[in-house]
Design a protein that fits this description.
The protein is mostly beta strands. The chain folds into two domains: 30 residues; 152 residues, no CATH class. It has a nine-stranded antiparallel β-sheet, with no helix packed on it. The mean pLDDT is 88.
Length: 186
């Protein structure tokens, strides 16, 4: 009889603890991603016809670290930001430095090098930033490599427009500036 009582009490305590944990999970607030060490950022551009390109990424900080050739190693695929994979959504068909990119959702990676970089447009979406499958590459595109005028603390992606149907996609961090021309296809 005593064993049954102990077993029953143990089961009740377990169920109460499980119930409390479930209630706590229901009331848990979603993560505030802006408080991350590499907070979320967005680069967006609209063509004259209203079709947009949107890039969502996480923006890591230098914090006194060696970035290019250090934190971002040369000759290895980089997730191009931090945290979740960098998403690239285009409502328009594009020409990216001579490569056709149909309207759709993609992930951006880069292949850094001391003297040359490649932008990788990958068809897999929704994954964590370190999940990369080369067989899902739509294209690998040469980028123009240059220097920034001053050190850039926060990794930044932006667009520099050149008329109603063209822009440069620009990435800057530390002393490195990368760009690639983008045009809307007809």
């Amino acid at each position: 009889m005593m064993k049954r009582t102990v077993a029953l009490l143990s089961t009740m305590v377990f169920l109460l603890a499980l119930s409390a944990a479930a209630q706590q999970m229901q009331h848990k607030k979603p993560e505030d991603k802006s408080k991350r060490p590499s907070p979320p950022a967005t680069a967006e551009m609209a063509f004259a016809n209203g079709k947009k390109i949107t890039i969502d990424y996480s923006s890591p900080r230098m914090r006194g670290r060696k970035i290019m050739g250090g934190l971002v190693p040369y000759d290895k695929i980089w997730r191009t930001g931090a945290n979740e994979a960098t998403s690239f959504v285009t409502e328009a068909d594009l020409d990216v430095n001579g490569t056709k990119v149909p309207a759709g959702k993609y992930t951006l990676y880069t292949l850094p090098g001391a003297d040359a970089w490649k932008l990788i447009i990958n068809k897999q979406t929704g994954q964590w930033g370190l999940t990369y499958h080369e067989d899902q590459d739509l294209a690998r595109i040469d980028m123009k490599l240059g220097k920034t005028k001053a050190p850039v603390e926060d990794f930044t992606i932006s667009f520099v427009k050149h008329g109603p149907k063209a822009a440069d996609l620009v990435m800057e961090w530390e002393n490195t500036r990368l760009s690639v021309p983008i045009k809307e296809e007809k």
